[in-house]
Amino acid sequence: MPGEAMLGLHVSIADSLDLAVDRASEVGATTFQIFTRNPNQWKFNPLADETIKLFKTKRKEAGFRRIVDHMPYLPNLASPLGPTMKISRYTLQEELKRCDALAVDYLVAHLGSHLGSGIAVGVRNVAEACNLALAQSSGESTILLENMAGQKNSVGSRFEELRLIIDKVEERERVGVCFDSCHAFASGFDLSSKDAVERSMEIFNESVGNEFLKVVHLNDSKGTLGAKLDRHEFVGEGKIGTQGLRAFLKHRWIRDKPIIMETPYDDLEGMKRSMAAARKLLR
Questions:
Q1: Distance between CA 190 and CA 193 in Å, rounded?
Q2: Which domains does the chain have, with CATH numbers?
Q3: How many CA atoms lie within 13 A of 96 on its CB side?
Q4: Which of 61, 94, 102, 258 could pair covalently with 6 via S-S, beta carbons 3.0-4.6 A apart?
Q5: Residue 121: CB atoms within 10 Å
């Protein structure tokens, strides 16, 4: 795999976590993303030693250079509400420990909503959650802040908000950004042409710094530019379109990163179709 683009998608862990490696390999992916647990529940079971061993063995044999875990959907790391803050921070801490155990490289986190308390409060809460999780971590997994789609009260829709959080994280070498193309487009950063991609990526570099860009979510958008609609579309079939996504994929700060698709097509044939469409854009 050395030299190849790291291109993949989100794959299921149904029946056994290690089967995610098999599923990614079956569709020709060279990277992949998983949930390590049910993303719609607070409760979870600890990882069995045998599960950890099998996952790591399969990953090594398949030759995946980088793999990604995604946080569950329920936590709101930016929340100012005590009970929500507490369980959200606990979830991040435990999920990072799971990544450490599995030797997963990156943990992608949605940042959530400040619920009207203001960006400064949301930024502080997310940074504190990251600091607490990293302080308890005994591994090397990196927390990635995912840019948001511009929904009301969201934290991280503007690139400068991501940098404000990064600047408050004590272990700076273990925090970065997951750049979601649909979210960026939805929040007003145009990616629909080569020139637009260059402008938007320059804004990202000026606001955050391209050295913090670690993973890419390659998603087209059902909504128009700036619509604040977090609805993914199949690659090339949305409002960003083929021209823009091709330029995005080939951008100098994007092309060597793990590129993950989160499309509506999660069956075997759908995943193969996603991989074929993305590979065509990379030519």
A1: 8
A2: 7-282 (3.20.20.150)
A3: 25
A4: 258
A5: 16
CA dist., res. 263 & res. 126, Å (int): 27
Average pLDDT, consecutive stretches of 10 residues, N- to C-terminus, the chain (283 residues): 81 96 97 98 97 98 98 98 98 98 98 98 98 97 98 98 98 98 98 98 98 98 97 96 98 97 83 95 92
For residues 238-259, one letter each, b for 16 or more C-beta atoms within 10 angstroms of the residue's C-beta and e for the rest, the string is: bbbbbbbbbbbbebeebeebbb
- Cα–Cα distance between 237 and 11 in angstroms, integer? 21
Closest CA to 89 of 146, 138, 42, 147: 42
- Tokens 């683009």 correspond to what residue? 5
Could you tell me which residues come within 8 angstroms of residue 202 by beta carbon, excluding any fewer than 6 positions away?
A: none
* Cα dist from 280 to 27, 181, 220, 253, 274, whole Å: 15, 18, 15, 19, 10
Q: Which residue has the tokens 């909503």?
A: 113
pTM of the model: 0.97
CA–CA dist 192, 248 (Å, integer): 9
Tokens 């509400």 -> residue: 81
Beta strands in the chain (DSSP E): 7-10, 31-34, 67-70, 106-109, 142-146, 175-180, 213-217, 220-221, 232-233, 259-261
CA separation for the pair 267, 117 (Å, rounded):
41
The end-to-end CA distance of the chain, in Å, is 17
